[in-house]
Amino acid sequence: MPEAKVVPNEITYSAAISACEKGGQWQQALNLLSLMPEARVVPNEITYNAAISACEKGGQWQLALNLLSLMPEAKVVPDEISYNAAISACEKGGQWQLALNLLSLMPDARVGPNEITYNAAISACEEASQWQLALNLLSLMPEARVVPNEITYNAAINVCERSQQLERGLQLLWESKERVDSLSVAYFPWALARLSVHDPDIISAAFDEVALKLSASQLAPQELSIIAWAFGMLGINNPTLLQALVIQAVPQLESFTMGDLLKLVWGFAASGVDVELPMAIQTDVITRLEQVDLESFSELSRNAFLQETLGLLWASNFAGCCSNKLLASARLVIRQAGASMDRAHGPSSLPAYESFGELPCTEADLWQPDGKPQIILDLPDRLAIFKPPGWEVHSQHTDLQLSSFLQATLGKHFAIVHDEEHQCGFLHRLDLPSSGLVLAAKTYEAYYDLKVQLNAGEIARDYVILCHGWVRPSLKDIKAKVYWRGLLPTIAGDQGKPSWTRLKVTAHAWHRSTALSLVAVRIATGRRHQIRSHFSHVGHPTVCDGKYTADATFQSDQDLCARNFLHRYRLTFKDLAGKDHEVMMPVPADLMISLQRVTARDIQSAETIRDWVDGNSLRSWQDYTPLILDFGQKQADTL
Question: What GO MF terms are annotated (predicted)?
Fold first, then answer.
């Protein structure tokens, strides 16, 4: 503009800052704001509002509040848009107290809150599970002459679900039907799935309405994707309705965001219905991956895009239709993003790749009295660690943190091991009472390379468990869906996230009068407490599991085993050059002792148990021979 001899004014700056806000470039927005005094341009409320909104989208709640506090000094009066943006910034930053404080200050500032204000404040209560405060805000809206809308009830139901107040959430759902004039088609299915409603009549009625709307009008991409997600979560088997979704979705795939595409393909994968939509979505996603320039994205937008791409990989793989082209395109873009993060964190995050050979590491000591973690395989950019029982991978629920061990071992040489947003480099978790192998990355490129492998089903995770009862050898798979809330046990059944546990019964045994089975397990999905909840679901809970057995059983089990008998004994993965690596770890000493205390039911079981105790014949899950029962045993099990 100066070159064209045009002088920028406050409208020019406001528009430019707003463009940066919409593009996720909060630093550029603040830089423009800071240049205005030098250009002798006075910012107005529109300028500040756009800058605060830019901070909100960038997750910078402190800067948003600072801008709001500077407005009176600049003789600019904050309006409801200013407060709304600041409250929303606090909500996204998990600062619910500050969000509610801003709401309480609005009357003194002679600014009237509107539905956007209340919606943001109620949403802020979700992260901290402050359901009482959220419902109180909802009850105050009529007094403030503000009418709750669908977004308001969305937020309130989310808070109730997060706080495990499912009945209250259901009450809000019925209330919203009476109080909100126009609800979207996706609202009811979404709420039923969110609240894990099991009543078949209610679910059927909701999806009958969906079918009616689909036949009468064209739905927006966001609505279609939410309906598909709810379809999968609720475990509905209705191919006709899914086909109607496909007919509407395919012509407008280009209008779907990556997040909407993820919900859509996830819903179809979770439903288990065979349709062609996932392949159509993959073609669209491949085109997007070939055209994307992540360098132009803000950090938040880039991370969201990476997670959505990984989610699409997972859903396509779970549906059994992940094409080689999608995998190659996703791997290239995601690894490049990781390499870019490494460069941004400086030379310490970039290992020297002279070779991908195995580096010296400590040999695992199964009889180590302290039960400390040990590095089993150390490569230049990734490693496999043995996690003893009682150690947590990363969450700060106990003093014994595997992340702290990794940080102490690697020091400050690798930035990712100190980055909590990237799980301190860990690819997956292992329950606190369990033992076994865990993968971790030393660089962002390795982290995202392994994430691609994990979501594409290229990493094998094999376990051995001891569980109650004589599991019939014909049981090969458990495919119950799972869901969980907070620290409550995971629920396995016909609703929730799709989960798949593969198993081979390798031995039957007794301990005193208790029947037991030794089972080799491979997980195709990695849900919270998946193995434990799945085996409990089929009536064979793992030994010494306080969460998934009755207290009397748990107390009795401690005579045999002092902790949950679940051990991840094998991992396979590839390095950055594509070379395969296999890591195996025999059962630790405490589990060996437990196995020595049981009595085998037959000769094959005795040999298998002896092999596990000796630790000399570890192999891939698929190479284990399932237990073969003789005719008498089959008859006894039937009786």
Answer: pseudouridine synthase activity; RNA binding
Provide the whole-model pTM: 0.90
User: What is the number of other CB atoms lying within 10 angstroms of the CB of residue 353?
Assistant: 12
CA Rg, the chain, in Å?
28
Q: Give the CA distances from residue 20 to residues 57, 80, 168, in Å, rounded to whole numbers and listed in that order.
A: 10, 21, 40
Q: Are 339 and 445 in contact (CB under 8 A)?
A: yes
Pinpoint the alpha helices (H) of 195-295.
Answer: 200-216, 221-233, 239-249, 258-271, 277-291
Residue spans of the domains in the chain: they are: 10-293, 460-629
Confidence of residue 636 (pLDDT cuts 50, 70, 90): low
DSSP letters spanning 232-258:
HHTT---HHHHHHHHHHHGGGGGGS-H
Residue 102 to residues 43, 145, 183, Cα–Cα distance (Å): 22, 19, 29
For residue 400, the tally of other CB atoms under 10 A from its CB is 17
pLDDT at 487: 85
Angle, alpha carbons 303-305-306 (nearest 5°): 65
Beta bridge partners of 382: 441
Q: What is the CATH number of domain 460-629?
A: 3.30.2350.10
Q: Tens digits of per-residue pLDDT, 450-478?
A: 999 999 999 999 999 999 999 999 999 99
Instruction: State the first-to-last Cα distance of the chain, in angstroms, to the nearest integer.
Output: 88
Let me know if 166 is exposed, middle or buried by CB neighbors in 10 A (0-12, 13-18, 19+): middle
Q: What are phi and psi of 61, to 5 degrees?
A: -65, -35
* DSSP per residue, 66-90: HHHHHTTTTT----HHHHHHHHHHH
Phi, psi of 48 (to 5 degrees): -65, -40
- Rounded distance between C-alpha atoms, residue 417 and residue 414, angstroms: 6
Instruction: Report CA dihedral (456, 462, 468, 474) to the nearest 10 degrees.
Output: 70
Q: Pairing mode, if any, of strands 460-468 and 501-511?
A: unpaired
Q: Select from 1.10.1760, 3.30.160, 1.20.120, 1.25.40 the CATH code of 10-293.
A: 1.25.40
Residue 411 reports pLDDT greater than 60: yes
Q: Which alpha helices (H) appear in 76-149, and where do they start and end? A: 80-92, 96-105, 115-127, 131-140
Q: How far is it, in rounded angstroms, from Cα 271 to Cα 239?
A: 9
Give the three-state DSSP class for 195: coil
Whole-number Å distance between alpha carbons of 394 and 421: 11
Element (H, E) at 551: helix 551-557
pLDDT digits (tens, 9 = 90+) for 565-580: 999 999 999 999 999 9
CB-based contact 57:24 (threshold 8 Å): yes
Q: What residue type is 566 in one-letter code?
A: L
Which residues lie below 8 Å from residue 404, measured CB to CB, with a gap of 6+?
none
Distance CA(251)–CA(271), nearest Å, equals 22
- Which of 214-223, 297-306, 503-512, 566-575 has the least mean pLDDT? 297-306
- In one-letter notation, the amino acid at residue 82 is S
Neighbour count for residue 22 (Cβ, 10 Å): 13
Can you tell me the distance from the alpha carbon of 123 to that of 96, in angstroms, rounded to the nearest whole number?
9
Q: Which H or E element spans position 33?
A: helix 26-35
SS3 labels along 417-447: HHCHHHHHHECCCCCCCCEEEEEEECCHHHH
| Contact status, residue 491 vs residue 533, Cβ threshold 8 Å | yes
How far apart are alpha carbons 462 and 630 in whole angstroms?
Answer: 27
